[in-house]
Design a protein that fits this description.
2 copies of one chain form a homodimer. Chain A is of the alpha/beta class. The first copy, chain A, has 8 helices and 5 strands. Chains A and B meet through helix 1, helix 2, strand 2, helix 3 and helix 4 of A and helix 1, helix 2, strand 2, helix 3 and helix 4 of B.
Chain lengths: 197, 197
């Protein structure tokens, strides 16, 4: 691998695309337990960005597993590969000038670090959705906690598989204490403060 | 796989994104021998679209192999997986409202069919860059034909590995007879005719 490969510099640069769009690009990396609200919040942020004419898109853990990562299981090695590929796709979207939200449990620190290191300083924005597991379990939007408790799902994050909390996420949201509207507003404020918008 | 997965309908739809962008999205799938001009033409089309304020991006065979597909070799099974993943990524870009150009040899009919079938009618536009192998070999921009002739590259398309021509590509370009400008112009005319632009 690598020997017979040449890197093609795209004629249109990332900076050109930022100029066309009127905003910079970045990845909003939502991480947290199942039921902590990642997809809901990522889609709410995406909608708020769209309403402001900002080019954005959501990569969703559940959605992407029907396509790109349909060949991967939920075992640790495959979870790592799942996150690596999503990181690489997010990088392509950032290069294309979009704000890309990714909503995956992404339970391992090392895997998230691997993705962070794919990006330039300031492009990777980790958003940790904190929510007590009891609350996530009571929400249980897909009935997964129930199945996990019955032993029907092996290696379920928070029950039979660890969730490693981010040490220093760029944004920290307690989804059992804040409304979606407040959370979206905090994220947009961060993007403005960092001059991404 | 698949049992514990729910498809999340994105709040913002592809059609919403088309409205924001003022154009539809599609994939321009460039296929042809090494040296037939895929990357050059894909980037030229991308630049022409950019200059018209159209949201577009290029997935390049050589570039993507440094990232998403760095774990894949050039063997037949891996070439298939290479194309499958690129198709899935192209699909995400099309869903995000962009015109995505992909520039890969993609030598096998079945692999290209697999990608075509991921898309709705009219979204997958196959562009066959025809060029006699002697001309491609004389261009040899990366010195790969020279290496292949020396036996330093196993399974090189056109020499030790087959290239299966498209039966009915949407666009057919003889890159040894047309200038880049003419080719770009033909592709843009096609996009206008199909009301993508």
């Amino acid at each position: 691998m690598g020997k017979n490969i040449t890197w093609h510099q795209s004629t249109v640069t990332k900076m050109d695309r930022h100029t066309l769009n009127g905003h910079k690009s970045c990845v909003l990396w939502f991480t947290g337990l199942s039921g902590s609200g990642k997809s809901t919040l990522a889609n709410a942020v995406d909608h708020a960005l769209f309403m402001r004419g900002i080019r954005s898109y959501v990569l969703d853990g559940d959605n992407i597993r029907h396509g790109l990562n349909r060949d991967l299981s939920f075992r640790k090695e495959d979870r790592k590969e799942n996150i690596r590929r999503i990181g690489e796709v997010a990088k392509l979207f950032v290069d294309s000038g979009q704000i890309i939200s990714s909503a995956f449990i992404s339970p391992y620190l090392a895997d998230r670090e691997l993705v962070r290191n794919m990006f330039a300083e300031g492009e990777f924005i980790e958003i940790y959705l904190h929510c007590p597991i009891e609350v996530c379990e009571s929400r249980d939007p897909k009935g997964l906690y129930k199945k996990a408790r019955k032993g029907e799902i092996a290696e379920f994050t928070g029950i039979t598989s660890p969730y490693e909390k981010p040490d220093q996420p760029e944004i920290f949201i307690e989804t059992n204490k804040m409304t979606i509207e407040q959370s979206v507003s905090d994220i947009l404020a961060y993007l403005k403060e960092r001059k991404i918008l």
